[in-house]
Amino acid sequence: MNMKKTQLVTLGLATAVFAAMVALPLGAAQGAGEAIDYAGLAKIKAEGMQNSQVMELASWMTDVHGPRLSGSPNIQQAGEWAVAELKKMGLQNVAMEPWTDQTSFPRGWSNDKFYLAAVTPQAFPMTGMSTAWTPGTNGLIRGEAVLVTSTDGAELQKLSGTLKGKFVLTQAPPDVAAFWTPQAERYTKEQLDAMENAPRVPELGAPAAAGRGGAGAGRAGGAPGGGAPFNRNDFFLKEGVAGVLTTSARGHGLFTIGGNRSADPATTLPAIVVTAEHYGRVARMLMKNIPVTLEADIKNTFHPTPTMFNVVAEIPGTDKADEVVMLGGHLDSWHSATGATDNAAGSAIMMEAARILQAIGVRPRRTIRVALWGGEEQGLLGSRAYVAAHFGSAEDPLPEFSKFNGYFNIDSGTGRVRGFSVFGPPEASKIVAGYLKEFEDFGVYGATASASRAAGGTDSTVFNAAGIPGIGASQDPIEYNSHTWHTNLDTYERIVEDDVKKSAIAVASAVYHIAMREQMLPRFDKATMPAPPAPPAGRGGGGAPNQ
What we know:
This protein has two domains: 11-16 and 29-105 and 306-516, Aminopeptidase, CATH 3.40.630.10; 107-174 and 209-301, Glucose Oxidase, domain 1 (3-Layer(bba) Sandwich). It has 13 helices and 18 strands. By secondary structure, it is of the alpha/beta class. The radius of gyration is 24 Å and the shape is elongated. It has helices at 38-50, 54-64, 73-89, 153-157, 189-194, 232-239, 276-287, 340-359, 381-390, 426-436, 460-466, 480-484, 497-516; strands spanning 11-12, 92-98, 107-120, 124-125, 128-130, 141-147, 167-169, 197-198, 243-246, 271-274, 293-304, 309-315, 320-330, 366-373, 404-409, 417-423, 447-450, 470-475.
């Protein structure tokens, strides 16, 4: 998910309890008056449970092509792989569709080698990673570690001439709390019924702990008289420090990563995020006035003007082919692990849903379109570009705007889908809930209506902001908030196979049934369309790290 400023994003979750129903004839939905293709539903379930490819898809995205940082060679290779795979499944009109505006990523970045260790007084390896879009060390270097926690300009100036070639630890060692609650969670039916909105991580910003993506390197310190804050980064750069180290309080071998794609390599220091345990060990020795020497060999490569793209593919419609139902998730990730739960799981689920429908030979009335977005972690950039190019907005619609029937999105980890939030009038969420009723045995409990046009956190909200139906999944947390979101533990092993298989089946069925409806999914009209929110300051820029 992505990172601009701290903000909680909530996606609605079903709260309605379905009434007891009488038996209905084949082909009639139970509760929403919608036609259910029970024969097609049985085929979807059988294909999804017996021939699932979702874990194999996830393995290719993570083990082979991870991490998939936006603008990196890996995301390019992942896109090429996805195109080949979707073509192999039999989908049509498969392409890596370039963004209309290619100026938002002046450079890509990749980490090619990372080595960091303490040398004296005790030798031990240090677990960490470079902040994205920061330079490496130009070979093996060794230097003294120093602890500099002050952000006051006058205090820092006293260190002038003493920091050259040194590794600066920029914050006090954090207190790391024990795990007092279970780290993996699954919602109960009672919890779901009690929720008005499903909780989500602050996808457009990190917890306030220092070390977020290296941004906690202490850029600001109070300036007298309310002037411009003292820029520690500039000071450290002028002093010739070897690099800056940060951490976060979560500990337990975890660290969270990020980066600023607009950072100028010429004015950026090597920035390293380190686990709290290794950072704290060094910092506490320094606080005892025990000298510590570190060495590092970090190779980071900048890639000028990468082509930014989204992957798209279709199952063409028949008599209503000009109308579209979409499903997707973001393909990009951060770089400290392989981006498994954020968001290879979501992308694999959606590819698998499309594969299921293609494999059973559906001939949908409406076109079913899969999209795998780039640039989500930098501010939902890929989906923003796509929506602007294809649909416009309620205030300035393009021809495709009136033909859109909803976009299903998954982007909250490996947890099973438990419901959806549907942007639109209540009738729209009731229709989606009616289709999901068939999956109560999977623990799926329906859908709720949303009227918010605020974009942030995940790609479905970009569709909402345009005034068209974004349909965002609410999922069991599992270990997403506690262990995997943007961390060095976000690997294939964290994906729960049964959950992603069942999510793909539920999504495939809902997409298929919407594609087969006689009428379009109900939408807000001009009279009922919620007003768009005021554009947030700096939205989509390259400033603070990120969903």
